[in-house]
Amino acid sequence: MDIISHRSEQLKGKLIEWRRHFHQYPELSFREEQTSRFIETTLKTMGAYDIKTGIAGHGIVAEATFGDGPVIGIRADMDALPIQEKGDGEPISAHPGVMHACGHDAHMAMLLGVAQLLAEDLEAGRINGTVKLIFQPAEESTDEYGLTGAPYVLQSGIVDDLDAILSLHICPWRKVGEIQVNKGPSMANIDNFTLKIKGTGGHGGYPYQTTDPIWIGSYILQGIYSLISRKLNPLEVGTISVGSIHGGNSANVIPDTVEIKGTIRSYTHEIRQQLRNELAAVAKIAESLGGEYDLSFEYGEPALNNDPLIMDLIIQSAKRMYPNMKIYEEPYGMGGEDFSHFTERIPGAMFFLGCAPHSRKEYHLHTPEFKLDEDALPIGTAILTKCVREFLEGKLKPGGDR
Question: In the predicted model, what is the mean pLDDT of residues 277-282?
Answer without folding.
Answer: 98
